[in-house]
Specification:
The chain is mainly α and 90 residues long. The chain has a domain at 27-80. The protein has helices at residues 4-24, 29-49, 54-58, 60-80. Helix 2 packs antiparallel against helix 4. The N and C termini lie far apart (41 Å). The model has no long low-confidence stretch (mean pLDDT 87).
Protein backbone atom coordinates (compact mmCIF):
# COMPACT_ATOMS: atom_id res chain seq x y z
CA UNK A 1 0.00 0.00 0.00
CA UNK A 2 1.35 3.41 -0.95
CA UNK A 3 2.00 5.92 1.78
CA UNK A 4 -0.08 9.07 1.82
CA UNK A 5 2.97 11.21 1.05
CA UNK A 6 3.64 9.13 -2.08
CA UNK A 7 0.24 9.98 -3.60
CA UNK A 8 0.15 13.61 -2.43
CA UNK A 9 1.64 15.14 -5.62
CA UNK A 10 -0.91 13.38 -7.82
CA UNK A 11 -3.73 14.41 -5.48
CA UNK A 12 -2.58 18.03 -5.56
CA UNK A 13 -2.27 17.94 -9.35
CA UNK A 14 -5.92 16.91 -9.61
CA UNK A 15 -6.93 19.77 -7.31
CA UNK A 16 -4.94 22.40 -9.21
CA UNK A 17 -7.77 23.40 -11.63
CA UNK A 18 -10.20 23.95 -8.75
CA UNK A 19 -7.51 25.83 -6.83
CA UNK A 20 -6.93 28.13 -9.80
CA UNK A 21 -10.66 28.89 -10.02
CA UNK A 22 -10.76 29.66 -6.29
CA UNK A 23 -7.69 31.88 -6.57
CA UNK A 24 -9.24 33.77 -9.48
CA UNK A 25 -12.34 34.25 -7.33
CA UNK A 26 -10.29 35.89 -4.59
CA UNK A 27 -10.43 33.05 -2.05
CA UNK A 28 -7.60 33.19 0.49
CA UNK A 29 -5.88 30.30 2.28
CA UNK A 30 -7.25 31.58 5.58
CA UNK A 31 -10.80 31.31 4.25
CA UNK A 32 -10.15 27.70 3.23
CA UNK A 33 -8.81 26.94 6.70
CA UNK A 34 -11.86 28.48 8.37
CA UNK A 35 -14.18 26.58 6.02
CA UNK A 36 -12.49 23.25 6.78
CA UNK A 37 -12.52 23.95 10.52
CA UNK A 38 -16.16 25.03 10.53
CA UNK A 39 -17.27 22.00 8.54
CA UNK A 40 -15.28 19.69 10.84
CA UNK A 41 -16.87 21.19 13.95
CA UNK A 42 -20.30 20.91 12.34
CA UNK A 43 -19.80 17.27 11.38
CA UNK A 44 -18.44 16.46 14.84
CA UNK A 45 -21.41 18.14 16.49
CA UNK A 46 -23.84 16.32 14.21
CA UNK A 47 -22.22 12.97 15.09
CA UNK A 48 -22.28 13.87 18.78
CA UNK A 49 -25.91 14.96 18.90
CA UNK A 50 -27.32 12.45 16.41
CA UNK A 51 -25.22 9.27 16.77
CA UNK A 52 -28.17 7.10 15.78
CA UNK A 53 -28.29 8.53 12.24
CA UNK A 54 -26.36 5.98 10.20
CA UNK A 55 -26.08 8.32 7.20
CA UNK A 56 -23.74 10.56 9.18
CA UNK A 57 -21.45 7.64 9.94
CA UNK A 58 -21.60 6.25 6.41
CA UNK A 59 -20.75 9.64 4.96
CA UNK A 60 -17.84 10.21 7.33
CA UNK A 61 -15.25 8.70 4.98
CA UNK A 62 -16.35 10.98 2.12
CA UNK A 63 -16.46 13.95 4.48
CA UNK A 64 -12.90 13.31 5.67
CA UNK A 65 -11.73 13.00 2.06
CA UNK A 66 -13.39 16.36 1.31
CA UNK A 67 -11.68 17.96 4.32
CA UNK A 68 -8.36 16.53 3.15
CA UNK A 69 -8.96 18.14 -0.25
CA UNK A 70 -9.76 21.49 1.38
CA UNK A 71 -6.54 21.30 3.39
CA UNK A 72 -4.56 20.48 0.24
CA UNK A 73 -6.13 23.46 -1.54
CA UNK A 74 -5.24 25.53 1.51
CA UNK A 75 -1.62 24.58 0.93
CA UNK A 76 -1.73 25.14 -2.82
CA UNK A 77 -3.28 28.62 -2.74
CA UNK A 78 -0.22 30.41 -1.32
CA UNK A 79 1.93 28.88 -4.04
CA UNK A 80 -0.31 30.39 -6.70
CA UNK A 81 -0.64 33.81 -5.08
CA UNK A 82 1.83 36.38 -3.94
CA UNK A 83 1.56 35.76 -0.25
CA UNK A 84 4.07 37.39 2.07
CA UNK A 85 4.43 37.56 5.81
CA UNK A 86 3.78 41.30 5.78
CA UNK A 87 0.20 40.75 4.62
CA UNK A 88 -0.70 38.50 7.54
CA UNK A 89 -2.68 40.17 10.32
CA UNK A 90 -3.67 38.65 13.64
Amino acid sequence: MAALYAVEPAFQARLLPATTVLQDGGVTPDQMTLLAAGLSVGEGAALCFFPEHNALWHGLLFFLFFIMALNAIDGLLPRLTVCSQSTVRF
